[in-house]
Amino acid sequence: MKSHGYAAHDKKSPLVPFNFDRREPGPNDVVVEIAYCGICHSDIHQVRDEWGQSIYPMVPGHEIVGHVTAVGSSVTKFKKGDLAGVGVMVDSCRICENCKAEAQPYCVKGMVGTYNARDYKGELTFGGYSNNIVVDEKYTFTISPKLNLAAVAPLLCAGITTYSPLRHWNVGKGKKVGVVGLGGLGHMGLKFAHSFGAHVVQFTTSESKIEDAKKLGADEVVITKDPSALAKHAGSFDFILDCVSAQHNLNDYLNLLRLDGTLCSVGLPEQPLSIAPFAILANRRSLSGSMIGGMAETQEMLDYCAEHNIVSDIELTSIDKLAEAYERVLKGDVKYRFVIDMATLPAK
Ligand code: NAP
Ligand code: ZN
Ligand code: ZN
After folding, report:
1. Which residues cross the membrane (predicted)?
2. What span, in angstroms and rounded, lies between the C-alpha atoms of 171 and 274?
3. Which of 88, 168, 260, 314 lies at 20 to 30 Å from 150 by C-alpha?
């Protein structure tokens, strides 16, 4: 199938218009005409090869929403015209113990990423900075028409990446929870932790975000540049979700955990982070990570958002302004997620 979008051809050049082929839809596939695609910081890491595993040409984008334009003969979940969403993965082996347990991101064979990956036939996958995508219905989500579609897009990555660990560690009423970094992931973590009934403390380097953090649901806001402000919370948190994209000191946050508390890091800075053994030994603390979420849990999150009227705070941008959007994400200058309006993609 003919597709077109924007691609990076190496780690330094700007993204440019790109024509490419997708597979012809099979019996289990849906074709989604993409209406909006969020800009995740992972797009920037991968376009710039900061994780050392980039494959070019790369069409980024894994926060995808749009309308179904065709369905294969065996598809039951969608019909033409339905809203649909696609996230960070488009396939997994389906038979390993993790896939069977609906933990597909941890597929033993390795899940297939929506872009910058090879599918099980060895074909390069291309993401959502494009006009359309072909995905097996099992890896495609239903979207409620109740919500603003553009603002739903970031739920497909930023939403599930924060929802999943907050659920896994039972964040809710009676728990003191921290969210580190008020960016695309962080602002969703804050909204969910607040919605689940926890006492939420937002940690931020940006004084300009204090009022926003409170509006988004923070009970307290701590400016992390001030060590005494952090020290006041020593040994008091049940759970901290670290959503920072760059180098920072994890030990500062480990020290804030109470007995058996957990720090879950979902951020993916390019360099390793160092741990002081004393910071985890004290209070029998745990340091963990978490990767997006399983298919069933992602649908559960989308349904939860429709029920509780939760979406991302977004700024719409056009596809010809990707370079500017990337620079602004790196400066923390977006409230709080850029979403590309795919109507701005020129006809090929
Ligand atoms: P983002 O929108 O750029 O937000 C990152 C936030 O981190 C910034 O807004 C800023 O918040 C804080 N920050 C940035 N530089 C910092 C520094 N040097 N020191 C301390 N804080 C800093 O990025 P995102 O899209 O939310 O993604 C965050 C990270 O998660 C990225 O590394 C991304 O690749 C990763 N990610 C992981 C998964 C997963 O499955 N685990 C999924 C998606 C993304 P303040 O201004 O509030 O300080
Ligand atoms: Zn992402
Ligand atoms: Zn598997």
Report:
1. none
2. 26
3. 168
